[in-house]
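In response to reviewer comment 3 from the previous cycle, which asked for concrete evidence that the modeling workflow produces usable outputs, we include below a single protein chain processed end to end. The sequence was submitted unchanged, and the resulting structure tokens are shown without manual editing.
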Amino acid sequence: MKKTTYSHWDVLLSSPTDPLPVKKRAYQMGLMRKALENCKIKPSVHDIAALSTAVDLMNTLRGMGHLEDDQKALEDAMTALMQGTFNDIEIRLFEGILEDYQMVMDNLPARVMIAAHRATEKRFSGEKVAA
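The workflow returned the following structure tokens.
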């Protein structure tokens, strides 16, 4: 079984009011923005995985009731990721998703973000989540 990024203890010990530390948010966003830049030229598997992480986490947060996606942007983003090619419309779609992801990380408590990360990993591994 693959070890998850965060444990149940990480959720419990994280701040219920303050966002993730600035350094952690900047690191995550840096990886995702670099991946998007690479997708404008020629995406690698790692670039697609980084963008997929943002979309998967946003889907989890939507499922948790922390955001809405009335226009189905996350669904469109997953379709683009599966195709592996990115035109100007898809690049703008991901730019919007990353802007939203930045806003979510800057405003939601660390506990919510860590629980969402944990739930996302567990969902893809097929394990039950206690968070």
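Residues 19-125 form one domain. We consider this sufficient to address the reviewer's concern, and the full set will be provided in the supplementary archive.
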